[in-house]
Automatic annotation (TrEMBL):
This is Glutamine ABC transporter substrate-binding and permease protein. Pfam families: BPD_transp_1, SBP_bac_3. Keywords: Cell membrane, Membrane, Transmembrane, Transmembrane helix, Transport. GO terms for cellular component: ATP-binding cassette (ABC) transporter complex.
Length: 479
């Protein structure tokens, strides 16, 4: 019996190793003519997805133009600003372009290109409100976006002016916090704030740009020197031939690119973004199905190890369940996607990292209710089977498991629902599932309430259908 479970565990280990190896093999460790470049997916007008779900903006257009000028290719990896930076630090991406200010602190970790844009920080608040200057912020709450120059500026002056800082990952969330009155004002990069106002955000800029600083393209310190050199050469070419001026004028001019003429009703937003929403939903479903398959394999085997008459296997099962249920899903995702590559030097595709994250997290919960389902079967059932001369394995397969499975099935379906919802957390590592799709759409039109309402309804419809399925299966089992 011990040999049987050892072989099963070995088989699972080999399966997981093959899965990880396959994923690692999907992306070459060293890019040659095609470079992986990470960017912030929600920082208009520097990077955002247009109405055709294509990434555009000053940074994106400049990068593509430089790549064409210098004869290399780029694969854009949109994610959050923090994840983009960590992707380069861990080797998951070759470079980052995300309206990233060049600072002494960052120069200790990154090698920067020559500056391609000069920006400054401004304060914005409600029009005709009580806050019109910095001295009026005392005792108030001020919103900033994580990792931005605005956040850095707020930290440098908050003691002087006596305000409290609250941090958000997305610009739209920061703006909404001010609009709802939770925060008195926000600090944002000047061109980004101007773009938001032009898009219809009901905020007003009250200060002149300060903390003026340059934006730069960055690579990991000591790495990708050729890419950095080509970026600098291409940038010089674009400035000399007028392409740089054309790109910046397209987004920052008085008639620059905007989305103000589109239909902003619920139906209009749904029609404009149905393709992107459908792609995001498909990615969510596919990630859920793949993750629940591997989570079920992992969970069933770990759960069975917890009920065999062997203290070592029992302890191993308890430990695995304790670890992976105890780790927050967000922490586990970032550890697998950025932590492991930092140690090994090998890239892990975001989808593979997301699947492994869900496999361990959801699998731990499956293992717990597998153990519970088996332990819920009366002890007398096993004793009666053994008294009839049946070995442990056959008693488990023919007597205990059929009864335990009837108890477990509703929990399996509920776990499928939980996994579907948990995929939204994986937007942090750049997987373009339904939640990340919503962030991308909002970055373009800043219609946070309406877009999140549409996405919430999609989730509710799917979860309601799965809940009905769970209730129907549970009723059938009881008959």
């Amino acid at each position: 019996m011990k040999r049987h479970f050892v072989s099963v565990v070995s088989g699972l280990t080999i399966l997981i190793a093959m899965f990880i190896t396959f994923g690692l093999g999907a992306t070459p460790a060293k890019a040659t003519t095609t470079y992986q470049v990470a960017t912030d997916s929600t920082f208009p007008p520097f990077e955002f997805a247009n109405s055709h779900n294509k990434y555009v903006g000053i940074d994106i257009d400049l990068l593509h133009a430089i790549a064409k000028d210098q004869g290399f290719k780029v694969n854009i990896k949109p994610t959050s600003f923090n994840s983009a930076v960590q992707s380069v630090q861990s080797g998951q991406a070759d470079g980052v372009i995300a309206g990233m200010s060049i600072t002494k602190e960052r120069e200790a970790t990154f090698d920067f290109s020559k500056p391609y844009f000069m920006s400054g920080v401004v304060m914005a608040a409600k029009p005709n409100g009580k806050i019109t200057k910095l001295s009026q912020l005392r005792g108030k709450r001020v919103a900033v976006k994580t990792g931005t120059s605005g956040a850095q500026y707020a930290q440098s002056i908050h003691k002087k002016y006596g305000f409290r800082i609250v941090t958000f990952d997305e610009s739209n969330d920061m703006y909404q916090d001010v609009l709802t009155g939770n925060s008195a004002a926000c600090f944002e990069d000047s061109p980004v704030m101007k773009y938001a106002v032009r898009q219809g955000t009901k905020l007003k800029i009250y200060t002149k740009p300060t903390l003026n600083g340059p934006y730069g393209f960055a690579v990991k310190k000591g790495h990708n020197k050729k890419l950095l050199r080509m970026f600098n050469n291409g940038l010089a070419d674009l400035k000399s031939n007028g392409e740089y001026a054309r790109i910046t004028r397209h987004y920052l001019g008085a008639k620059g690119s905007s989305d103000t003429t589109s239909d902003r009703t619920f139906l209009g937003l749904l029609k404009q973004n149905k393709g992107a929403l459908l792609n995001g939903f498909e990615q969510t479903v596919w990630l859920t199905v793949v993750a629940i398959f591997f989570a079920t394999l992992f969970g069933v085997i770990v759960g069975l190890l917890g009920v065999v008459p062997n203290k070592f296997f029992n302890g191993l099962s308890t430990t695995l369940i304790y670890i992976f249920r105890g780790l927050p899903l967000l922490v586990l995702a970032l550890f697998i996607y950025t932590g492991i590559p930092s140690l090994t030097g090998s890239k892990i595709p975001a989808f593979v990292a997301g699947t492994i994250t869900l496999m361990f997290n959801e699998g731990a919960y499956i293992a717990a209710f597998v153990k519970g389902g088996i332990n819920a079967v009366d002890d007398g059932q096993m004793e009666a089977a053994r008294s009839l001369g049946l070995p442990f394995g056959k008693s488990m397969r023919r007597i205990i498991l059929p009864q335990g499975i009837r108890i477990m099935i509703p929990s399996f379906i509920n776990q499928f629902i939980i996994t579907l919802k948990d995929t939204s957390i994986l937007s942090i590592i750049g997987i373009i599932e339904l939640t990340q799709t919503g962030k991308i759409i909002i970055a373009r039109n800043l219609e946070g309430f309406k877009v999140w309402t549409i996405i919430a309804i999609i989730y509710l419809i799917v979860i309601t259908l799965l809940t009905w399925l769970s209730n129907w299966v549970e009723r059938r089992i009881r008959l």
